[in-house]
Amino acid sequence: xxxxxxxxxxxxxxxxxxxxxxxxxxxxxxxxxxxxxxxxxxxxxxxxxxxxxxxxxxxxxxxxxxxxxxxxxxxxxxxxxxxxxxxxxxxxxxxxxxxxxxxxxxxxxxxxxxxxxxxxxxxxxxxxxxxxxxxxxxxxxxxxxxxxxxxxxxxxxxxxxxxxxxxxxxxxxxxxxxxxxxxxxxxxxxxxxxxxxxxxxxxxxxxxxxxxxxxxxxxxxxxxxxxxxxxxxxxxxxxxxxxxxxxxxxxxxxxxxxxxxxxxxxxxxxxxxxxxxxxxxxxxxxxxxxxxxxxxxxx
Length: 299
Hints:
It is a single chain. With 299 residues, this protein is mostly helical. Helices cover 64% and strands 2% of the residues. The protein has a two-stranded antiparallel sheet. The relative contact order is 0.06.
């Protein structure tokens, strides 16, 4: 009896190995009934209803295809999520953006990340809805941080938008830079750093200078802030800006960094980050544990 039982499961495993589509469907079914939808493409009842909740709230109707694609965003397999993201962006129906925004506060990290990536690929079209989301006072921290990460994706993939960001939107992001939530603060510092950074407009085939007013905002932040968790990121972006700007604009950044490094109350970690960026100004090699320069070795 035991031998026959073992032989049956051996044949079943071989059959599933030869038929991966059937295996995928079974994995999805197991995930659907598991707690929290952690397995396969299954998701909890709460996650599956996110697209429908968003559709009702925004007075739009999500198609059956969009709802199914939203379900796939919770899949544990990266290639499945990537396929769904591409299809969602390609179709881009009226319910797409509210349905994706509804997922930004979901507990499953891969689901939030996939929704964030899809919204980022939609570009400028997704920005007004994200700004409206960030203006909510009672927004849970994870949804606020993920909303800012959407903007990071947008400005990373669409550098041509950096020069023309409205000041009220910059002020909103800067407000979250002083948030109590460390993830929100870090996401905000990256977002402002991206907006300030020069880039390349692929459509026009020309360089983008980056947002000068945001650079000035970050320079002032370095001069006055003592936030050891955020300052290294801001300093890193300012140094990157300086190396890609005209000499006059670059000198303004380097001068501000030099002044900040002389602050008596400055933490040693922050001072080290500033000195690292200043060293890059002259093309000097920084000491490395793997391959230290001769000067650092006292030779």
